[in-house]
Amino acid sequence: MKRCNTLPAISGLLMIGLATASANAETMNMGDMNMGDMPMKMDMPSADQPAASGRIEFNEAKPVGYTLPDLQKLASKYNPTLIQAQAQIDGEKGKARQAGLPPNPDVSYVGELLGERRAGMGEFMGGTVQQEIIMGGKLKYSKRKYEARVQAAIEQARAQRFRVMNDVQIAFYHTLAASETVKLEKELLKSTQDMWLTTRELFNVGQANQTQVHQSNIAIEEQRLKVITAENDLQMHWLELTALAGIDEEYRELNGSLETSEPNIDFQATLSKLLAESPELGEAKEKLRADELTVKREHRQPVPNLLVSGGPGYDQLDRSFAVMAQASVTNLPLWNRNQGTIQ
C-alpha cells in the first residue's frame, strides 16, 4: 500500500517540475547550479549543434540526392579504373593494327663504276626502291595474336566493371545505413536530454541525489560521443562512395531504402551463369588463344622473306635509259630455325 501511495506523488512532482522548467526556461541559467554545498557546471548540449570543422554537416533539410543507379552511371563514366581498362583495350587494338602492317620500303640512289674513264660520271646512275615482302603469313598471325589480346582486355574490363558496380552498391548501402544511424543517435540524444531534465527536476524536489545527476551528465556526454562517431562513420562511407563514383562532392542525403524484397540466390543457377558468362573465365580463354597464336606465329618465323628492289637510271656507256632489278631471299633457316623460342 505504501508503494501505491508513492507513485502518484512522484508523478505529481514530475509534472510540477516540468511545468516549472517550461515556465522558467528563459530566465534560468542552466550553466551554474547550487546543489547543496557543491556548485555544479551542467551544460546540456543540443542535438542540433553544428558539426565540428572537418566533419559532415548533417542537415536533414537538404534535398534528397543520388539514387543507386545515378551513382553507378557516374562510376561508369568517371571511375579511374574503368577509364584505365578502356585505355588498355585501345592500346591492344593499336598493337594489333601495328602488327599487321608490312615494313616500309627503302629508297636509295645507285651509281656504278664511278670514276671510270669511259663512263665519265659512272656506268649507271639512278634511283632504286627496295621492299621486303614478309612471307609465311607472319603478319597475319601477329595481328591475330594481338586481336586475341584485345578480347582478353575487353573481358578484363567487363570484370572490372562488375567489381566497381558491386563496390558502389555496397558503399551506397553502407552510406545509407550510416545516415540512418546518425538520425537514430540524434533521437537517442534528445531522449537523453529529456532524462537529464527529468533527473534535474527530481533533484530540485528532493527525489534524486547528486550521484543520479552526475550519471545523467555522463549519459548525455556518452550519447554526444555516439552522435559524433556516427557522423564520422557517415563521412567515411560517403568519401568511399564518391571515390568509387569518381566524383568530389559534399555530402548529400541518398535516395534509397534499406528494405529489400530480393529473392534468395539459387546456388546451381548462379553457378551455371557464372561458368557461362564469367568475364574472368572469358579473359583466361582469350589469353590462352593468344598464346596458341603466338606459338603458331613463332613456327612461321624461320620462313625466309623476299627482298625485291629496282628502279630506272641512265647508262652512260650506251647513253640511254635503263632499268635495274634485283630479288633476294633473306634469313635462310639453315642453323637458326627459331627452335629455342618455339620450345
Q: Can you offer a commentary on this structure?
A:
This protein has 343 residues and is of the alpha+beta class. It has 8 helices and 6 strands. The protein has a domain at 54-101 and 138-301: Up-down Bundle (Outer membrane efflux proteins (OEP)), CATH 1.20.1600.10. 56% of the residues lie in helices and 14% in strands. Strands 3-4-5-6 form a 4-stranded antiparallel sheet, with no helix packed on it. A two-stranded antiparallel sheet has the order 1-2. Strand 5 and strand 6 form a beta hairpin. Helix 2 crosses helix 5. The longest helix has 67 residues, at 138-204.
Element layout with pairings:
Blueprint: H1 2-23, E1 32-35, E2 38-41, H2 68-78, H3 80-99, E3 106-112, E4 124-133, H4 138-204, H5 210-245, H6 267-277, H7 279-299, E5 305-315, E6 320-330, H8 339-342
Antiparallel strand pairs: 1-2, 3-4, 4-5, 5-6
Helix pairs in contact: 1-4, 2-4, 2-5, 3-4, 4-5, 4-7
Describe, in short, the structure shown.
The protein is an alpha+beta fold. The protein has helices spanning 2-23, 68-78, 80-99, 138-204, 210-245, 267-277, 279-299, 339-342, and strands at residues 32-35, 38-41, 106-112, 124-133, 305-315, 320-330.
Give the tags.
6 strands; disordered N terminus; elongated; Outer membrane efflux proteins (OEP); four-stranded antiparallel beta sheet; alpha+beta
